[in-house]
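Please predict the structure of the following assembly.
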Amino acid sequence: MHLSWVTAAWSAAIAACVTIALQHVWVWVKDRSAIDHLVTAAAMLGTAGVGVCELLLMRASTPEEFAFVLRWVQAPVAVTVVALIVFVRSHLHAGRVWLFWAVIGTRVAASLVVNFLVTGGVIYSEVVRLQPVTFLGETVSTAEGIQSPWVLLGRLGTILMLAYFIDAAITIWRRGDRRRAVVVCGSMIIYGAVGVVHVALIHSGRLRSPYLLTFAFLGITAAMSYELAADVLRARDLAESLRVSEAKARESAERLGLAIRAASIVIWVWDIVKDEFWISPETRALRGFESSERITLDRYLDAVHPADRENARERIGVALAGNGIFENEYRFLGPGGERWFSVKGIVERDAGGRAVRMRGASLDITARKAAEAQLLLQREELAHLSRVTMVGELSGSLAHELNQPLTAILSNAQAAQRHLAHAAPDLGEVREILGDIVSEDKRAGEVIRRLRLLLRKGEVSHQRLDLSEVVADVMKITRSDLVSRGITASVNAAADLPAVAGDRVQLQQVLLNLVVNGCDAMAGEPVAGERRLTVRVGPESAGAVRVSVEDHGPGIPAERLTGVFDPFFTTKAQGLGLGLAVCRTIIDAHGGRIWAENNRDGSGASFHFTIPAAGPA
Amino acid sequence: MKDRAPTVFAVDDEPATLKAIARLLRAAGWTVAPYASPAEFLERVDPDAPGCLVLDMSMPGMTGLEVQLALEARGVALPVVFLTGRADVPSSVKAMKRGAADFLTKPVDERDLLAAIERSVEKDAAARRDRAEVAEITERLATLTPREREVLARVISGKLNKQIAADLGTVEKTVKVHRGRVMAKMNASSVADLVRLAERAGVRRA
């Protein structure tokens, strides 16, 4: 059998088109979002259709037959052209939108509307006769006919299509995607232009040749298919690198999780707009939250210890309104009991400055808090021990302070008994006596209260204090001790001192220490004259109050001025050497400073301490 | 002098205690003169006023012991009842050595205080009586002539008139006259009485 090259060539092209089209359809069926594959398949199938029509045209035996097929070839041409430009738009995201619609409009109008309405079709209004030509060694039909005026519409559509391709190519080229610009748009432009010129030459009668559009379209669609295949390869690469990076991300997340668990850190994000917390899953249960429960700010704060709750809420409010940094320490109540957390959060704002999110971490500091509490306890115990020691030293003085009112009470009561024993008792006098007994009893009670306060082993409570009152209290406690040691004490307190925040008992303790030390220092001085102790209370620059205790003893050797505050430093035979060390601890805890210096005039030493003034009440 | 009622002087720097003690002593029938400071008391003290002093031991400015010394220096012989807040042995010993009448610890019961005051006032009265008697004898002694004093000194040493005459280079009869005058001037009823008076006045025997 004689082999027909024409049949072989066109059949091969058609088969190729259909095969590739089916592959793309298959891809689309697998992944419905892969519209580009469907579009490519349409272009391929359109090309196959064109191929079939061209084969039929070459084999046409009558002008009518030729005209009929020529009219119908417009349909696959239209499908192919529309598919091409849709591909450019959807896959390459290029080309002007108005051009896109103009191409579709003119093509549909020319090939599908006008073509089937006007006599003969959009190409020839009439095919006059068939003109056999030799092509690839065999005789095939071409036509000779009267060109339809509508052929210009088709040509306009084709020119617009080329313009659209060129426009898209330029955009893509500029975008830097040169491979696509060359492979896809380049083939579209070249094959398109060749096809157009070839067809125009045939239609104008200048070239006797069968239609070869199939191959032009095949070139273009092959480029499209290549492009999609390249995408598939790229996608595979992407998927691979994604998998690797996912694995890496998972690994680092695991590492982070491990670190978080090891360090007892809780990570949280508060979506302020939705008022919803995300809390790292493994820690939700620790706070008593259900794993799926929605956690609002109120719910979150529910888990905070009631004593800390309002403060935490307030601080969050401050962070939102202010610099956006939330820092606090509070207790969480979980199923496992109460735990301390140090919480830090940072507010994130949108472009308008609105707080939208707060991200933060909470660190479990229960152990640290326990250690701190233990330390505080030890410090308090030490302070207490030192106080008890000091009260012991002062016991004579305190007994005297108690004795005074007791003496007055006893004598008053016995005087009253005597009055009442008279036949006509002076009741006015008795009433007066009873009044005095009451006030002396209260005075005794006051002494006992002060004593109990000093001996009490209680929690440190900071309150607003007037330091001159503290000084006055201490002078009352030590009064009779000073008297019996022949010491003249004077207090020099400035008026209108700012209040300080402090613990009354502890500050009394510091002053007692300093006063007793001052007295001890002067024990060796002659009684007459020089046993003077002065306590001064006055403002210190930078919002603090200074208290000074000045004695006129021998002073402190210069090399010991700083060492006096060290633990176990003592010059007394009976001393523990803790008094001043405890004083320094107390003053440090109050945010103040304590120091010693020798008096300028060379007689005796002064101890000073400062306490920062409290803010306004 | 003998007519003056005894006064209890009280010195305490603690107003409430001072008032209460003064009240008690008044209720017990004493005349009380309270002073709020040692200085005030020392300034106003009348050495002739009979009675006693109730003195607080520890006061600012001046301790009880210092007050005691100051009184001595002024020749005031008031017995002192010390009141102290603390039973401090060294200072109580010191006080007693200097002649404190009593040393009481606060708070003091009225029985102890009143008893101490009673004793002290009595002691003061006795001391005053004693001083008054000696003063009277001394006055009488002052009326004696030198010769009569010489005779007195020998009479109280138990010498006979004859021995005295020999001592003084005179006759027994003259001695007898002197002796009679001495007995009359000294208001002595007997030689024994004269001896007692002379001893009280501290006349030396010869």
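Chain B has two domains: 7-133, 144-201. The two ends of chain B are 35 Å apart (CA to CA).
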